[in-house]
Amino acid sequence: MTTEVWPTAEELAAVIAQRITDKVAEVQREGRTPAIVLTGGTIAIDAYEQISGGDVDWTDVDFYWGDERFVPAGDADRNDQQAKDAFLDRLGVPADRIHAMPAADGGLAIGEAADQYAAELPSEPFDLVLLGVGPDGHIASLFPGHPQVHETKRLAVEVLDSPKPPPERISLTYPALRNAQSVWLIVAGEGKAEAVARAHADGTIEDTPASGVQGLAETVWLVDVPASALIVRR
Fold this sequence. Notes:
Elements: E1 2-6, H1 9-29, E2 35-38, H2 42-48, E3 62-65, E4 67-69, H3 79-88, H4 110-120, E5 126-131, E6 156-159, E7 169-172, H5 174-177, E8 180-187, H6 193-200, E9 218-224, H7 225-228
Helix pairs in contact: 1-2
């Protein structure tokens, strides 16, 4: 695990945008179609908005999501809609490369929707999983003290009682999130400092789910100065 600290959230977002582009270009140079898991959140959207064309074929990238609010398709609260608005539509990513989680108006019960999404995931490791971290230390929709953090078989699960509204969500589990060459945890703001410090010290998946995810090749924390403020004190 490595941790990189950037002075401001603005600089951090620019770095994330460039590194996503570089990662996609690297995989495409290997002759493969990159598989990227996107996250939501302010810093992620700020980064997505700065992604430009670069030396990348954005029509040949498969995009997935770590979690999603179980609300109707096109709802502004959905992570997939926010990503489309921020960069996917702008860069011309075709619909068949956007692997959105099922929506609440799609005709499936939430448990069925989670299982359907799990069946859509690639068998090979993701090239990159992006994860935000909540003030409580949650990642995706794996929340402290919730049973989903202990799931070892299902790759995607329903969440019926999220402490953040809306209560119903779908989330990838650790078996899916850990099946990635690179995991980047992107965090900004002093409100996240306690959670970041716990994840770097004595946090467990029960109290700090962010402490339980690692990439097969690398795990990188990309944080700004306020989010890193308590690391050295622990």
